[in-house]
Amino acid sequence: MAEKKKESPEYIAMRDLALSQLKSGKSLTGEGGVFAPIIKEFLESALSAEMECHLDEEERSIGNKRNGKSSKTLKTSSGEITIETPQDRHSSFEPQIVKKRETILADNLAPQIIGLYGRGMSLRDISIHIQEMYDVEISATTLSEITDRVIPQVKEWQNRPLDEVYPIVWMDAMHYKVRDGGKVTSRAVYNILAINKEGRKELIGMYISESEGANFWLSVLTDLKSRGVKDILIACTDNLKGFSDAILSIYPETEIQKCVIHQIRNSLKYVASKDQKTFMKDLKKVYQSATKSQAEMELLNLEEAWGKKYPIVIKSWHENWEELTTYFQYDEHIRKIIYTTNAVEGFHRQIRKVTKTKGAFPSDMALMKLIYLATENISKKWTQPVRNWGLTIQQFCIKFGDRMKIDL
Length: 408
Fold this sequence. Notes:
By secondary structure, the chain is α/β, with parallel strands linked by helices. Helices cover 50% and strands 18% of the residues. Required for the transposition of the insertion element. One of its GO terms (molecular function) is transposase activity. Keywords: DNA recombination, DNA-binding, Transposable element, Transposition.
């Protein structure tokens, strides 16, 4: 049997001190912390090695050499550490591990800084918050550099592979202002929110364009296909002209459900305010019908009552009828999910809570970066399937056959 290694008195003392500080909630790395001397020694050794590299043969040939040390206190989220930094006679040494005039290990605070930024705080507010919390100043430039570290994550996320099939997808756009070449212009942020085969929400796409239009949606759908999406069973959209054609050109078997609420809003724009209450009472009988055939009868009644006064409104319902009534094929719990774009609009409301303090974004990437971080926070709650998903997926398997397979 191997003999148990005897622990040194120094190790035992450090272990006991570390346990004591952990139990009391005291920082292990800050001033007085058990690991502070180790961090101090590491940083000072690294700085000394950097100085040796700096004082190469060329530097020494012009008379440069070590010129003592200076003391510097570094602030971290865990406390303060005082280190000795080497100096050279010509003051040309530029250390990298702890830069000149750097009094805070910014990397130590990067997660907190990115987290605050993702919740909508401005760089100025973050700077004030960090100063209040840690009594240090971080410039807006440094903060911007830290938040820019998520850009590779954003690009990787945008290009990640997707599932082959998504049962339900909602598509909608948000609008923001961005500075472009010295002037402020509008940007449309295209979002594709989906329910995957497990019944969980997932943002599968986010794109930026100068304006919302069916042509750009076509490029969005093409991108989804290139990332592995072979089929979408039901696509829920607003009433943008040409949208359905764009979807069907890429996914010809997809069922389109136009948003009934969008249709209602658009209709009421052309109904006199004195008639809106009565008109809505009649209109509810249409879209709240139990069956499609009953809804068609109620639409004829609506036309008889209001067709002469508001012919354009009634015509719009007839023209969009097939794509407004897809939901009648399904049970009540599925109808509630697909007959409006409320799911993606609810997501947009959460995003706007984060972006509402912003005026014009400095760039497209600054806009994308913030929405990505906000989405990361929002999606932490998307851990459970939508209600009644077990029943829903079974209906989809029956209705769509080989297009919707599940592993049992």
